[in-house]
Amino acid sequence: MKKTKTVSLVLFIGVVIILSSCASMIEKILPNEELIIAPDPENPFQGTWMSTFPSSGYMHVINGMNGEWYARVKKRSVNTWDKLAVYTIEESDNGYITSNNWRISVNDDVLAVEKSRYIRYDRYIGK
What is the tally of structural domains in the chain? Predict the structure, then answer.
């Protein structure tokens, strides 16, 4: 009976450690408050957009028709957001294109950006 309690305790502690580490990983990839841009009903591009696969760690922050592209990087055991590109969005004959020649489109709360392939980003509203 004592052996069963010991095994149960060890399993319980293991599960708690796993769950807490998963929760801390999710928290670390969220954007800082200054990177959260509120959506604008008049401009479907405006807002903060997170890549659909959290492990990929990319984000677009679009304010008006000006955007910034970020990547999550680890510096001294802390995840931070590094700015990789700055761009503007302009209307073209085939939709919208950025100043660095990426095709970009919005459908509801999904942003699609084509560089070499389309990458999907979901609108980030906040915590």
Answer: 1
74-85 pLDDT per residue, tens: 877 778 899 999
Closest CA to 116 of 102, 104, 98: 102
What is the chain's percent helix, strand, coil content, to nearest 5? 25, 45, 30
User: Does 40 fall in a domain?
Assistant: yes
DSSP-assigned letters across all residues of 37-60: ---BTTBTT-EEEEESSTTT-EEE
78: CATH: 2.40.128.50
* Domain span holding position 117: 31-124
What is the value of pTM for the model shown?
0.73
Tokens of 46: 């405006």
